[in-house]
Q: What sequence folds into this?
C-alpha cells in the first residue's frame, strides 16, 4: 500500500540516506521501508497525512495497534519503534519537522518469552538421530548438527561456511555473521570428527556433480549445490522427529550452545564474543534460563562469618 503523499518523499529520502550514509543491506532497508509503510498507512486511516501533524499520542496509538490487532511480539514492536525513532529524528535533523514526536515512546520489554533450549541429553539424541538409518546424507546431517551446536551458529551462518573457513588443524571455524562481521569460533572434537568424515567420504563426491558450482561451500545438498537455509530447517525438523523431540528449530541449537556454556561456568563476555552479539544485553537473556549454579556461586564467592557453636 502506498504511503500518503505527505510521507512518500520523506520516507524515500530517509531510506536513500540510510543506504548511502549507513551502508545498510537491502534486507534491512526493506524492513525499515515496511515499518514506515505500516505507520503511514495507519496514520492515513486516522486522517493524518503529513509528518508535521503527527503527535506522540498518534504514535502510541499505532504501537497499540501493532500489539492488539496484529499480535506482534515485543521484540518485533521494539524494532518497529526503532525505525520510527530514527525516521522522525532524521526529519528533525533535516528540519522537515520542528520536533520529533517519538521521544516519549517507551519500547516494550524485550524477551518476555525465554528461548527454547534443549537439555544435554536431548541434544545428544538429536545428534544421534543422524545415523545410517536416517538416509544416505546422514554424515552431512550429523556434521551440520554437531557444527551448529559446537559453534552456536545461525542457520544462515552455517550455510555460508566454505571449506576454507574450517581450520581443521586449529579446530576453529571462521564465521561471517550479521553485518558481514567475522569471528573465529573454536569447535570440539565431535564436530571436527563429523566434518572430517563428511568431507572425506561424501562431500568430495557430491561436489563433482556441479562441476565447481558448489562455490566451495562446506555443506552441500543432495545435488551438490550449496545447502540453503530452508533445507537446514527441514533437516533439523526431520532429525528432531526421529529423536522424539517436538518444536525444535535450528536457532534452538544456538540457544542451547549459549545456555550450556553459561551453566558450565563460562564468562558472559566470552559467550557474547562466540555468538557475535554486538550488545551484551542480547546475550544476558541466557543468564535467566539456567539458574542451577546460582546457589553454588553465592556460597563460594560471598564471604560469610561461620556460626558460633
A:
Amino acid at each position: 500500500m502506498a504511503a500518503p503523499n505527505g510521507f512518500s518523499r520523506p520516507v524515500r529520502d530517509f531510506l536513500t540516506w540510510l543506504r548511502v550514509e549507513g551502508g545498510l543491506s537491502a534486507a534491512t532497508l526493506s524492513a525499515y521501508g515496511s515499518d514506515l509503510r505500516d505507520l503511514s498507512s495507519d496514520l492515513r486511516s486516522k486522517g493524518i497525512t503529513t509528518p508535521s501533524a503527527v503527535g506522540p499520542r498518534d504514535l502510541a496509538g499505532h504501537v497499540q495497534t501493532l500489539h492488539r490487532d496484529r499480535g506482534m511480539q515485543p521484540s518485533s514492536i521494539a524494532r518497529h519503534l526503532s525505525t520510527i525513532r530514527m525516521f522522525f529524528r532524521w526529519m528533525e535533523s533535516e528540519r522537515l519537522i520542528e520536533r520529533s514526536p517519538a521521544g516519549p515512546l517507551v519500547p516494550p520489554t524485550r524477551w518476555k518469552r525465554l528461548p527454547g533450549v534443549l537439555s544435554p541429553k536431548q541434544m545428544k539424541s538429536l545428534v544421534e538421530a543422524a545415523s545410517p538409518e536416517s538416509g544416505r546424507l546422514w554424515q552431512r546431517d550429523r556434521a551440520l548438527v554437531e557444527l551448529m551446536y559446537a559453534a552456536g551458529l545461525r542457520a544462515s551462518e552455517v550455510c555460508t561456511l566454505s571449506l576454507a573457513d574450517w581450520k581443521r588443524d586449529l579446530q576453529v571455524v571462521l564465521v561471517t555473521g550479521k553485518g558481514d562481521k567475522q569471528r573465529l569460533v573454536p569447535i570440539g572434537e565431535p564436530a571436527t570428527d563429523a566434518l572430517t568424515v563428511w568431507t572425506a567420504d561424501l562431500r568430495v563426491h557430491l561436489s563433482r556433480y556441479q562441476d565447481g558450482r558448489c562455490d566451495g561451500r562446506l555443506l552441500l545438498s543432495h545435488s551438490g549445490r550449496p545447502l540453503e537455509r530452508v533445507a537446514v530447517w527441514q533437516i533439523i525438523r526431520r532429525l528432531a522427529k526421529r529423536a522424539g523431540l517436538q518444536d525444535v528449530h535450528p536457532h534452538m541449537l544456538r540457544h542451547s550452545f549459549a545456555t550450556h556454556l553459561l551453566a558450565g561456568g563460562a564468562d558472559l563476555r566470552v559467550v557474547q564474543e562466540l555468538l557475535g552479539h554486538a550488545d551484551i544485553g542480547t546475550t544476558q537473556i541466557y543468564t535467566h534460563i539456567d539458574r542451577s549454579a546460582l546457589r553454588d556461586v553465592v556460597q563460594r564467592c560471598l564471604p560469610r562469618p561461620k556460626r558460633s557453636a
